[in-house]
Amino acid sequence: MSAALKDWEDAKTSGQGVLAAISETRVALTHVDSTISSKSSAFAASALGAHCLGSAEGELTHRLAKLSIDLADSHATMRSACTTLRDIATQLDQSSGGERPGSVPHSIARLAEQMCAMFEDQLEAATLILEDAPLCSEPDTLALYSATWLMEPFISEPAIATTLDALGIDGSSAPSGDDVAG
C-alpha cells in the first residue's frame, strides 16, 4: 500500500509540473494566434513575420502534444496506484468476510474501502483534467485544474492516516501537509 501511495504522489508531482507547462504553452500559443490573426504589426504582416509566427505556432502545438502525452503518463501511474489500492481493499474485505460488522478486521476493511473510494474520486477528477487541459485556452480554468490536481479535494489526509495506522503501515509515503485538503 505504501508503494502505491508513493507512486500516486510521484505522479501527482509530475503531473503538476506538466499542467504548469501546459498553461504556459497555451498562453504563448494564444499570443501567437492573436498576433497572426490581427496582423496589426508590420512584422506579422511581412512574409518573414508570417513564417516565423507560423513556425512558432507549430512548435508550440508540438510541445502541447508532447505535454498531453506526459500528463497521460502521470494519469496512467495514478490509475495503476488506484488499482493497487482497490486490490488491497478487496483482499482485506475478503479476509474479513466471516467477521462480524464492527470487528477489527471488518473495520479495517471498511477504512481501506473508504480510502480507495477517495482515490478513485480524485482519479475521476484527474481524468476530466487530462481530457480538457491540453485543449483549454482559458487561464482561469487552467489555474483551477492545476489547483485541483495539487490540492486533491477528494482525498482526506486524516482518513489516510487512520487507515494506515489501523493497518500498522508507516504513513511517511502518504500524501501530507498542504498537498491534501481535509
Give a topology summary.
Layout: H1 2-38, H2 42-45, H3 47-95, H4 104-132, H5 139-151, H6 157-167
Report the portion of residues in β strands.
Answer: under 5%
Poorly predicted runs:
176-182
Tally of helical segments: 6
Summarize the biggest pleated sheet: none
Radius of gyration: 22 Å
The overall strand count is: 0
Terminal Cα span:
21 Å
The topology string of helices and strands comes to HHHHHH
Mean pLDDT value: 84
Task: Briefly note the structural class of the backbone.
Answer: mainly alpha
Can you give the helix content as a percent range? Answer: over 70%
General shape = elongated
Quickly count the domains.
Answer: 1
List keywords for this structure.
single chain, about 180 residues, mainly alpha, 6 helices, about 0% strand, elongated
Walk me through the structure:
The chain is mainly α and about 180 residues long. The chain has one domain. It has six helices and no strands. Helix 1 packs antiparallel against helix 3. The two termini are about 20 Å apart.
Short description:
The chain is an all-alpha fold and 182 residues long. The chain has helices at residues 2-38, 42-45, 47-95, 104-132, 139-151, 157-167.
